[in-house]
Amino acid sequence: MGRDLVIDNPNQTFIDIVGKGEAIVGLPLREAMPELISEGQPFLQILDDVFTTGEPFVSPGSLVKIVQNGVLQEKYYNMSYSPIRNGAGEIYAILDVAIDVTPQVNTQQALAQSETHLELLRDMVPAMIFYLDAQQRYQSYNKVFRDWFGVSGGEALGKTVREFLGEAAYRQTESHLDRAYAGQPEQYELLAPSRMQENRWLSIVYTPHTDEAGQVIGIIVLATDITATKQVEQQLRLSEERYRLLSADLEQLVQQRTQELATANEELAASNEEL
Question: What is the pLDDT of residue 89?
Fold first, then answer.
């Protein structure tokens, strides 16, 4: 009530929030809650502005520091200040409604922190990790994805695999995606699509993400660079081929020399008979 913001007609919830009992009735808000001043909180000024401008104030999830039982607590409230006018249209009071949403805000903050940690972990893994929704649209990806494809920020978000990779590259992955979206984990090797602009061999793993009903709602994709392994395999194949050819040549040479020796022996035996 009034510019001094005298507390009038508080409900039990407000009395419990302030934590000083019913004695707060008739006190200016700054006396009932001195922490609004000592902690540098803006609410007294905001209430004064409502008196001055007549404009309501609404703020979801506002942080309020409140001393309860001698301990400073941090709480979050959906708050609204609505001016109340008399018959002459003059503001004489403000209706303060505050809904405690501390558990919801704490949960949201924990989820945001978890997501930050998860993103950090994704970026630390030396592999490409991304998530496709039920329509094969990119919903999230890590730094390796951005680096390998040369995209910035959310450039690929919301695009389908077909739109992002192009028709030719999509045809290479389509059958594997179909199996994954049918609920079957899939793993295969692929020469990187031309969009990467680099001859890179990838080992790709699709892990279906299902809801409680068992329906596939997305795919978690892990793609690892196996170019070095492929190069070693190619070198081994070349070595094996050279060895096979060398072995064949040696065998042919041995057979030839054996034949020549047999022929020479026959000729020598014939000469001995003539003698």
Answer: 92
User: Cα 271 to chain center, whole Å?
Assistant: 90
Q: What is the 3-state secondary structure (H, E, C) of the chain?
A: CCCCCECCCCCHHHHHHHCCHHHHCCCEHHHHCCHHHHCCCCHHHHHHHHHHHCCCEEEEEEEEEEEECCEEEEEEEEEEEEEEECCCCCEEEEEEEEEECHHHHHHHHHHHHHHHHHHHHHHHCCCEEEEEECCCEEEEECHHHHHHHCCCCCCCCCCEHHHHHCHHHHHHHHHHHHHHHCCCCEEEEEECCHHHCCCCEEEEEEEEEECCCCCEEEEEEEEEECHHHHHHHHHHHHHHHHHHHHHHHHHHHHHHHHHHHHHHHHHHHHHHHHC
Among 225, 243, 269, the domain boundary falls at 225
Phi, psi (rounded to 5 degrees) for 212: -65, -25
**Which of 187, 206, 225 finishes a domain?**
225
Which domain CATH number covers 58? 3.30.450.20
Phi-psi label, residue 54: left if phi above 0, alpha if psi -120 to 50, beta otherwise: left
Are 86 and 136 within one domain? no
What does the block give as tokens for 27?
Answer: 């006190």
Q: Quick: pLDDT tens for 131-188.
A: 999 999 999 899 999 999 999 888 999 999 999 999 999 999 999 999 999 999 999 9
Sheet holding 57-68, edge to edge: 57-68, 71-85, 91-100
pTM for the whole structure: 0.50
Give the N- to C-terminal CA distance of the chain in Å, as an integer: 145
